Amino acid sequence: MRGVFWRQLLRFAILHVPPWIEPIVMAFWSAFFLLWGPGRRGVMRNLKVIKPGSFGIANFFRCYRVFWNYAWTIADNVRFKELRTIPDWEFAGLDHFQAMQASNGAILLTAHMGSYDLGAHLFSETSTRRIVMVRAPEEDLETREFEEHHGAEGLRIEFNTRATELALDLLETVREGAIVAIQGDRVMGSISTLPATLFGKAATVPAGPFALAMAARVPIYPVFVVRIGRRRYRLVTSRPIEITRSRNRDDDFARAVAQWMTELEDVVRNCWFQWFTFEPYWPEAAS
Amino acid sequence: MNVIADKPEAHWLPSRHRFALSRLIAYAKLRRARAIANNAEHLILPIDRDQTAAEMNGVALWVFFTTVCYIAAVLPLILPAAIVAAIPLAAIALQFPIVGIGPIVRMLLGDGDHIKIISVITMALLVIASSYFAVSSSWPRYVAWFFFAVLVVNGAAALVVWLLRNGIREAEDRCAR
Question: SS3 for A112?
């Protein structure tokens, strides 16, 4: 669903819906969005791959669960921006998280799940390290202006449109000791990619985070923000992916991508209801 | 916003609950709670009145159930069919104060957080509907009586919470330390 109208409606709801009828409103709108054919079909096709042999009717109800979680997640994100309301946070893999904070520059690699934005905001508020988020820009100009106007303070957001220029900027930023947060599960727009395998099927992932880690000689930390209940999130940090340089660059990347895909597959398998990928992820799922 | 770190028992801080009855139950739980094992490696709990899922989901279900009964009662259908039809209608009806009154409130008061005023209006509409059904002779009068019983119990709990306010504050301070 694109367009500024939905953003405005969500913001209006956050500022007007009493919390004690919020679950009903969420249930209603999650059901309403099942009418969104492309999104529903995209989620159901992805579920077919994540859960091989699953029935269409079961995946329809699973799709509702994905929409339900997505509704709560984006609501929590807007609530934070507008009312500074933060959810409960649990941390798993705290050692890795602390190592990332202590490191002199790192890449935070995450996926379209839970609340990426909320996690980044939490990080920017609790860490002394500067965090820079890289994300795909909103296609619609009005939506982009709305997002810029209603963005949270203390967080630098870069859009992955001007590839070469941005790569140099980010390289410098990482070398200065900042943490660059990138979503590394799916490719959006015309960016360079690396081949990968997810759930036994061929896929592609953005090459940017891996190339940046290699150039800056910093580790990649897989971080997932998982919604575990109403206004409750778990921040899961996995062991870092170190990209060792050898004579064969492709092999170096392949090893790093394989480790990332293992982490991603594990999280998506356990939290499929929070993988917010509304387009068919695998080319064969699209067909 | 204040937060408490690495104290799972802070889940039961009365300040993390909205309604008096819920705050009273939370206080009783907090008094009994000793150091609960912390399953998470690190825990951050904000002190916000709308933070507790059980309370908010419970109230939402109660309000929804009440609205379904009232709508089912006025539908010209046999009861099972009326209840089935009333479920989506209740979900829509409960949004009327938000989409119907919300824009007016926004126009009068300007952009900003209007949750409190919409909350009061929604509850007032529920009280009006419950008053109507409570004095009728149809079956939803029992639902309406239950609605008022909950309000009365919550009112009594508010009085007890006010009487215990010092004890509650001390228990919260102990937990936060």
Answer: coil
